[in-house]
Design brief:
Shape of chain B: globular
Largest sheet of chain B: 2 strands, antiparallel
Strand order of the largest sheet of chain A: 1-2
Protein name (chain B): Ribose transport system permease protein
Distance between the termini of chain B: 23 Å
Order of helices and strands of chain A: HHHHHHEHHHHHEHHH
Structural class of chain A: mainly alpha
Chains: A mainly alpha, B mainly alpha, C alpha/beta
Strand content of chain B: under 5%
Helix content of chain B: over 70%
Number of helices of chain B: 14
CATH topology of chain A: ABC transporter involved in vitamin B12 uptake, BtuC
Oligomer: heterotrimer
Number of domains of chain A: 1
Number of strands of chain B: 4
Largest sheet of chain A: 2 strands, antiparallel
Largest interface: A-C, 49 and 74 residues
Shape of chain A: globular
Number of helices of chain A: 14
Organism (chain B): Ensifer adhaerens
CATH class of chain A: Mainly Alpha
Low-confidence stretches of chain B: 1-10
Mean pLDDT of chain A: 80
Strand content of chain A: under 5%
Chain lengths: ~350, ~325, ~500
């Protein structure tokens, strides 16, 4: 139903209403909001840098190339998963309950890793194992996509159910044991590259670059944002909304498979407990949006947020502080960030 | 019989099957397991299902049902369980009488709800993010309290009998956890479907602005809901602690996903897809029976989770496809 | 002489005798619209006359039940949004479909983004340059490169939306109330643009409530009334006043069954109420048995005053007294406790909960009545049955979800909610928007009944006939002030119209 404007009013154009758009009062909130948004973004960057400075002063080893490389390498798995989740959040919108979320990502990584390691154990080579692991991830993504776009289950529940199935399959496959695996590819991935920085660090940076190029710099990415943020507008622009949503889950599934391969290399095999990564990855991806100018989820923002968490863990370790504080810091940060954005929005609506 | 009732069309039949997918699934797994594993139907086994699998999950799922009814979700139910457990154990170790310690445990759990209430009703953060934050902060707090996550054991001897009662006692031959679960279920049903509070909570979950425009102080209800959720979850903390005589940091989260699953499976029972107590209870029953039945069927232990997941998935798929079809007509 | 030639390109759109029903209500009962190529064609009619339905039909969003659709001389059985776009027909809808976090360039080019030659990457520089260029050329609008849609004013958003359509090189452009959010200068730019487009051969369909605009801009106008076209006239030979007369229903007496009620004691006294920047020094008294009308343009302060009374806004000065007792309505909860009741304009969002049943909606504001610790469901049902009968709510039963009801019946449920609470002061905000004619009369009857029973009713409406028909007195708001009070039975629509617009001239002087 279109909302009808007041009755026919001859000559009313001569008389702009008091709340006209040029009134500074009317544009005030938007302006104030921008300033506050800037402060929020600047503030989080300042916190990030502040943390780095704090650690580098208190733990001299912190800012060495070797250590930074280590942090990057150790963050690779979480980073790839968080990037996968970010794609889903962009395409599904930031309302986590009805919008984009993929709770099956961590379990996906676990199963993909198990598939890889099991195949290697069974004597298959890297090519078969890689294809199988990525295929596993993609298949899980396809199930999610079908459940959400065809059956119409909300993403939170669909991926929750899929997570259960996938985690179960991993247990069935591995009997809840460690499956060691060692291949040339795995060795190469876990080795050190140029400057003594782990290869995984380069992988993370390369992967981020690739995904960021697609998501932030191509028409495809722009359309994905439109689909997630304002599906009606996307539909009006002639975009196939459902295909985009399905595609985002396929992409995130693929990320899960890729992270699986990385984890086999990092841990020299497939191990149990992949599910524990889920909530930290969710928090990381959601935090990432404060590093973007428009306060939306971005791939680079997610990378920064991943590294932030990585540096926190690393710094605490160097200072011999229990790294358990990390989750508290993450929790407080997300509450702080979300409170700030919520309060901003409320101000805007007044 | 009016003409309308006579002309039952095929879609109507399909829809009523869809709506009763939950009951059908329950009946099917029951028959299946009775056939696969004769031990399944024994009284002892069914009782163990109820006490070991059903009771605690049911209470957590009931708590979750309130949050979902209000249009939200509570990812920090596990945190409330843990806080209650920690407070309970600490007070017992400090030599407090059991009733005082139990009360302290409940308060410990409710603290979590208060925190959520401030975030959600006070500041206006979306429940998912607020309770996710609480979950993380709660995890750290517990680790700080326990030197990095060490379990807190009660001495094997010297624990008063009253302490063990919640987990191991019986009332007229019925295990206490089951009695408590039954009371919680009955109370929750009464509150949600027969009181002003329950009606307002349901309405706020369906269309919050109408509740506000009806002159109802919505925020107060939202706050009360999350406090209630944590209070109910805290009961689980007490029973759990009494059963295993140990507090393990962040162990309450084990219930989280199944509680969410059971709640939403339960919504498929309602014609309009609303969260409801009987549905949640049936959802929990389904999950418990499948877990137990798969175990007894001699299948690989790990198939349990796959089976459970597939079942949740199918019930949800039928439920949602059905709702979609209903929306189209 | 140029005008004489214009429109000789034949008919580009012919909608013939279109019938469209929604449930029981007939939105269109044989409406026709013939638009000649290269003309600006106005479409006018009151709320509920069928304009939106006809336009949605042309957009392929509704399917006609009967009638014939011919575009470019070709007959179509049914239109789809895609087909319509292929035919070069584009719509500027009232609701602005733009992604708030996009830059202007991104919003303009979404769906047909330019790429850097030879790469798969967006050419952001080109998007920036082109959009700045286009906005400047058409509208003289210069926005910062980094401006996001969310930062733009309503008018700027509207302009971006229009520009998006222009990028499609349309054959036909349909404007649905395009100036509602624009100020004079922007509207003038829009008119210049429309004339330029017409000269370029684009056909324009222009829907507006503002007859002055129609008269100034259009070549031809079609007037809709009660779901059919009552006239299609060349503008050169027609005045705005004549158009207005065509839009109006003649049989006003039948529509407004207003009983005579003698006003009783004062129920609500508003004294010098002010809300910074919205309205100032509003004073009036509402008596028992009285129906008071409020009206004014968007932003005139009428709506804000109503919202303040219900506690949705907080006044910065002045006082409100109910039955002589000064109250502070800082929240709807407090207002409701003082026997105030609001039937909000956005019925489907604020008035009724679509996924709750008729019973649950009806008793939502009066649950205390049925709660003795535990809800007395029987009493609740009986009370609802009674109200459903009294208000003649057409429903499948009191357990039916409210979303299955028609707009008029939903509105009755929204009112029943307050009857169940036995509220004494009713604030009705555009009570008949989107309601079919039969239900309208029932709602008018109900308003009369409320007054007869001793309630006080305030009706805020932009439908001036309606206001004259149902109220005793009318307060006109203009620029945040009550500028005049009318006795309804001694007032003509023209008098109110000129007061509302602040133009002290009669209808016939315009156009």
């Amino acid at each position: 139903m279109l909302v009808d404007a007041p009755y026919y009013i001859p000559g009313s154009l001569a008389e702009p209403a008091p709340s006209n758009p040029q009134d500074p009062q009317a544009s005030g909130p938007a302006y104030g909001q921008r300033v506050a948004a800037l402060a929020l973004r600047g503030g989080s960057l300042a916190v990030f840098i502040g943390v780095l400075v704090f650690f580098s002063v208190t733990a001299p080893f912190f800012l060495t190339i070797g250590n930074v490389g280590n942090v990057l390498g150790q963050s690779a798995i979480a980073g790839v998963l968080a990037i996968g989740l970010t794609i889903v959040v962009i395409g599904g919108g930031s309302n986590v309950v009805t919008g984009g979320i993929d709770l099956s990502l961590a379990a996906n990584m676990g199963l993909s890793a198990a598939v890889y390691a099991t195949l290697v154990q069974a004597g298959y080579g890297d090519p078969v194992a890689v294809i199988a692991a990525l295929g596993t991830g993609l298949a899980i993504g396809a199930v999610n996509a079908a459940a959400i776009t065809l059956a119409g289950i909300v993403p939170l529940l669909a991926t929750l159910a899929v997570m259960n199935v996938v985690a179960g399959l991993e247990l069935v496959l591995t009997n809840n044991t460690v499956v060691p695996a060692s291949t040339e590819l795995l060795l190469a991935l876990s080795a050190s590259g140029p400057f003594g920085i782990p290869v995984l660090a380069y992988v993370l940076l390369g992967f981020t670059l690739l995904v960021a190029a697609v998501v932030q710099f191509t028409p495809l990415g722009l359309r994905l944002y439109a689909v997630g943020e304002f599906p009606e507008a996307a539909r009006a622009a002639g975009l196939p909304v459902k295909s985009f949503v399905a595609g985002s889950f396929l992409a995130s599934g693929l990320c899960g498979g890729f992270a699986g391969i990385l984890s086999v290399s990092f841990l020299s095999g497939s191990t149990t407990g992949a599910g524990d990564m889920l909530l930290p990855v969710v928090v990381t991806a959601l935090l990432g949006s404060v590093f973007s100018r428009r306060l939306v989820p971005t791939i680079t923002g997610t990378l920064l947020s991943t590294l932030f968490v990585g540096f926190l863990i690393n710094g605490f370790q160097l200072l011999n502080i229990s790294s358990t504080l990390v989750s508290g810091v993450q929790g407080l940060l997300i509450l702080l960030v979300v409170s700030a954005t919520t309060l901003l929005r409320r101000q805007e609506n007044v | 019989m009016s003409a309308r009732q006579l002309s039952v069309s095929i879609p109507t039949v399909a829809r009523s099957i869809g709506r009763h997918a939950l009951i059908a699934a329950l009946a099917a797994v029951f028959v299946l397991f009775a056939w696969l594993a004769p031990a399944f139907l024994s009284g002892a086994n069914l009782l163990s299902v109820l006490v070991n699998n059903f009771a605690l999950l049911a209470i957590v799922a009931i708590a979750m049902t309130f949050a979902v009814s209000a249009g939200g979700i509570d990812l920090s139910v596990g945190t409330a369980i843990d806080f209650a457990s920690f407070a309970f154990v600490s007070l017992v170790l400090a030599g407090q009488p059991i009733p005082i310690a139990a009360l302290g445990g409940l308060v410990g759990g409710v603290v979590v709800g208060l925190f959520n209430a401030v975030l959600i009703a006070g500041i206006g953060i979306s429940p998912f993010l607020a309770t996710l934050g609480t979950l993380f902060v709660g995890r750290s707090v517990q680790q700080l309290l326990t030197n990095g996550g060490n379990p807190v054991y009660l001495p094997p001897t010297g624990v008063p009998d009253a302490f063990r009662f919640l987990g191991h006692g019986t009332i007229v031959g019925i295990p206490v956890p089951l009695v408590v679960a039954a009371l919680v279920v009955a109370g929750a049903w009464l509150v949600l479907s027969r009181t002003r509070f329950g009606r307002v909570v349901l309405a706020s979950g369906i269309q919050a602005s109408v509740v506000r425009y009806s002159g109802i102080a919505l925020r107060r209800y939202t706050a009360a809901t999350y406090i209630l959720v944590s209070g109910i979850a805290a009961i689980v903390g007490l029973i759990l602690t009494s059963t295993v005589t140990v507090y393990i940091p962040s162990s309450g989260n084990a219930f989280l996903l199944n509680a969410i699953g059971a709640t939403f499976i339960g919504t498929t029972l309602s014609p309009h897809g609303r969260p409801n107590i009987p549905g949640t209870v049936l959802g929990v029953l389904l999950l418990s029976i499948v877990a137990n039945g798969l175990l007894l069927s001699g299948l690989n232990f790990y198939w349990q989770q796959v089976g459970t997941g597939l079942l949740i998935f199918s019930v949800l798929a039928i439920g949602f496809a059905n709702r979609k079809a209903a929306a189209r007509t | 002489m140029v005008e004489a030639v214009r429109g000789d390109g034949g008919d580009i759109i012919r909608l013939d005798a279109i019938v469209k029903r929604f449930g029981g209500a007939q939105a269109l009962s044989g409406a026709s619209l013939v638009v000649r190529r290269g003309t600006v064609h106005g479409l006018v009619g009151q709320n509920g006359a069928g304009k939106s339905t006809l336009i949605k039909l042309l957009a392929g969003l509704h399917e006609a039940d009967e009638g014939r659709i011919e575009i470019n001389g070709k007959v179509y059985d049914r239109l789809t949004p895609h087909l319509v776009e292929d035919l070069g027909i584009h719509f500027i809808h009232q609701d602005r479909l733009l992604v708030p976090t996009f830059t202007v360039g991104e919003a303009l080019f979404l769906g047909r983004e330019p790429r850097i030659a030879g790469t798969p990457f967006l050419d952001r520089a080109l998007m920036r340059r082109r959009s700045a260029e286009i906005l400047d050329r058409y509208f003289g609008l210069r926005l910062p490169h980094s401006a996001l849609i969310a930062d733009l004013s309503a008018a700027e958003k509207q302009i971006v939306q229009i520009t998006r359509a222009l990028l499609n090189n349309p054959n036909v452009l349909v404007f649905d109330e395009p100036t509602a959010a624009l100020v004079r200068r922007e509207a003038d730019l829009l008119f210049q643009l429309i004339r330029r487009l017409r000269d370029d051969g684009v056909t324009i369909i222009y829907i507006s409530h503002y007859l002055g605009e129609i008269a100034a801009l259009c070549d031809t106008v079609t007037v809709l009334r009660n779901g059919r076209d009552v006239a299609t006239l060349p503008l050169k030979e027609t005045s705005a006043a004549e158009i207005g007369a065509l839009m109006v229903n003649r049989e006003i007496g039948d529509l407004y069954p207003k009983p005579q009620v003698v006003a009783g004691e004062a129920l609500l006294a508003v004294d010098d109420l002010s809300l910074s920047n919205r309205y100032a020094n509003v004073s009036f008294t509402l008596h028992k048995g009285e129906v008071l009308g409020l009206t004014g343009l968007l932003g005139s302060g009428a709506k804000e005053t109503l919202r303040t009374l219900f506690g949705l806004e907080t006044a910065t000065a002045g006082s409100v007294a109910v039955k002589g007792e000064t109250i502070f309505t800082a929240s709807p909860a407090k207002a409701t406790a003082k026997s105030l009741a609001l039937v909000p304009e956005d019925r489907r969002r604020d008035g009724v909960a679509l996924d709750l049943s008729v019973t649950e909606n009806t008793t939502l504001a009066s649950l205390d009545r049925f709660s003795k610790g535990v809800l007395d469901l029987g009493a609740e049902r009986r009370a609802t049955e009674e109200l459903v009968k009294r208000l003649q709510v057409k429903t499948d039963g009191i357990d039916a979800l409210v979303k299955t009801l028609s707009g008029g019946n939903q509105q009755k449920v929204a009112i029943a909610k307050w009857l169940s609470r036995q509220s004494e002061i009713y604030l009705l905000d555009e009570p008949t928007v989107g309601v079919d004619i039969a239900a309208k009369v029932e709602i008018y009857t109900l308003i009369g009944e409320l007054a007869q029973r001793g309630a006080g009713v305030i009706v805020l409406s932009s439908d001036i006939e309606e206001l004259l028909g149902v109220t005793d007195r009318i307060l006109v708001f203009f620029r945040g002030q009550v500028t005049r009070e009318f006795i309804s039975s001694q007032t003509s629509p023209d008098q109110i119209l000129s007061e509302v617009t602040g133009a002290y001239e009669t209808l016939s002087n315009v156009g």
